[in-house]
Amino acid sequence: MSITEITELGRRWVAAELQGDTDTLDELAVDDFTLVGPLGFLLDKKQWLDRYRSGQFVTDELDWHDVTVRRYGDTAVAIGIQQQRAAYRGRPSDGQFRVTQILVRQDDRWRLAGLHLSPIAPPPGA
C-alpha cells in the first residue's frame, strides 16, 4: 500500500480542477464516477466534466488539506477539507467543505470512484 500514491492523486486532482483540465480529470476517475455536491445534487462523470468543458464552472482557488486516508484492500477512503473560490455560471460557489473521496485500485493505479462534498458548519444547536 502506498498512501503516497493516494495523496499524489489528490494533488493531481486539485491541479486539474484549477486548470479545468478535463483530460486529466477523465483519466483520474473511473467510468461510473459520481459526485455528490454540497447541496445533495448528483453528477455523473460526463456531467462533472462538462461543467469544465462548457466553461460554466471555473475554479480560481482550491486547497485540499487535513487529509486522512484509510485503505481497505483495493478501496480507499480519503477525508479532508476543501477550501475553494469558484463560480458556476458566473455565480460564486465559494466555500469550505468536508470532502470524502472514494478511491479504487484499477489497472495497478488509484482512481476516483466518487466525491462527496458537505459544507462545514457547526452542529445544530451549537
From TrEMBL:
Q: Per its record, how is this protein called by name?
A: DUF4440 domain-containing protein
Q: Where is the DUF4440 domain?
A: 6-112
Transmembrane feature ranges: none
Looking up Pfam families in the UniProt record yields: DUF4440
* Organism per entry: Actinocatenispora thailandica
InterPro entries in the cross-refs: DUF4440, NTF2-like_dom_sf
Q: Specify the taxonomic lineage.
A: Bacteria, Bacillati, Actinomycetota, Actinomycetes, Micromonosporales
